[in-house]
Write a structure and sequence with these properties.
The structure is a homodimer. By secondary structure, chain A is mainly α. The first copy, chain A, is 61% helix and 0% strand. The longest helix of chain A is centred in the C-terminal third of the chain and has 35 residues, at 80-114. Chain A binds a DNA duplex through helix 2.
Chain lengths: 142, 142
DNA sequence: GTATAACCTGTACTATACTACAGAGTCAAG
DNA sequence: CTTGACTCTGTAGTATAGTACAGGTTATAC
C-alpha cells in the first residue's frame, strides 16, 4: 500500500498542510504512522476522512460536531438514529439562523428603502431607527 | 447634569460592565471623564450611544461596522448616502448568508428525510453523502 | 555535492465579541 | 469605623477555525 506525505494529502483534499496538522491536534484525524525521519505517512483512509470533514463542513457542522459524527461512524454498533438526531438538531439550528437573518433582512430592507440616500444624516431613517429608544414602527429586538 | 457610574449604565442598557470597558478599548465609545477617584462618569449621551450599538447589533452589524456608522453619524457634514451604502452592503451580506444556509437546509433536509433513523450506520444516507467523492444526487459543494 | 523543496516542532498570531479574574483602591450605609 | 458593594488596571481565557512563522532536519533533483 502506497503512502502519502502531508503535502500530497493537502493537495488531493484541497486544504492546507497546517490545517491537517491542526485537525490532528484537535483529534479529528488520528496521528498517522511516521517514517524514520519523522515524516507523517498517510493512506487512502485519511483522504476519505478529510473529504468527509470537508463535506460535513459544507453542511454546516462545526468541527466539534464533525468529531462526534466521526466517532459514531467508527463505532461498529452505532445506529443511524444517532446520526439522524445530530443532523436534525443541526437542521433546526440552520432554521433558526435563517429566521433570525430573515428578520434582520426585513427590518433592514425597510429602512434602506425608506432612506432617500441623500441629505443630512440627522434625517436618515436608518440611523434614526438605531437611535430610538422606542421604535418608530420598526422592530429592533430579536 | 447628573452623572452615572459604569454599573448604572450597564444596568440601564442591559449589558455587562466589562462590555462597556471593552467597547471603550475598541473605540466604540469615548473615554468618559473621571472623578478624582478615577471612577468613570457617564451621561445620557453615552446611554444613547450604547443603545445605538445594541440596535445596530440586532441588525447584524459587526462592531467594526458599527464604529463606522458611529463616526459617520458624528460627522456634521455626513450624507445619508454613506449610511445607505453601508446598510445596502450589509443587506447583500445577509442575503448571501441566507442563501448559503438555505442550500445547507435543503441538502440536509433531504438527507434527514431519507434516513430511516434505525439500522446500521453503514447504510445511513447522511453519512454516505458525506463520505462520497462523487455524490449520489445530493450536492455537497457551495 | 549542493541547492531547494518539503517536512518537523512549537509557539504565536488572526478575527470576532466578549468574559473572567487578581489585587488594589473607593464609596455608601449603618 | 467597619463592612460590603462597587470600581480601577492589566492580563488572560473562552469559542471557532484556522494561518504564519522561526529554526531545524530530510528528501529530491540536477
Amino acid at each position: 500500500m502506497s503512502t502519502l506525505t502531508i503535502g500530497q494529502v493537502a493537495r488531493r483534499v484541497g486544504i492546507g498542510i497546517e490545517t491537517i496538522r491542526f485537525y490532528e491536534r484537535k483529534g479529528l484525524i488520528e496521528e498517522p504512522p511516521r517514517r524514520e525521519s519523522g515524516y507523517r505517512q498517510y493512506g487512502e483512509g485519511d483522504i476519505e476522512r478529510l473529504v468527509f470533514i470537508q463535506h460535513a463542513k459544507t453542511l454546516g457542522f462545526s468541527l466539534k460536531e464533525i468529531n462526534e459524527l466521526l466517532s459514531i461512524r467508527s463505532r461498529p454498533d452505532a445506529n443511524s438514529r444517532e446520526i439522524k438526531e445530530i443532523a436534525s438538531a443541526k437542521l433546526a439550528d440552520i432554521d433558526n439562523k435563517i429566521n433570525l437573518l430573515k428578520r434582520m433582512q426585513q427590518t433592514l430592507k425597510k429602512l434602506v428603502d425608506q432612506c432617500p440616500g441623500d441629505g443630512p444624516t440627522c434625517e436618515c431613517p436608518i440611523l434614526e431607527a438605531m437611535e430610538m429608544d422606542d421604535n418608530g414602527g420598526v422592530k429592533m429586538s430579536d
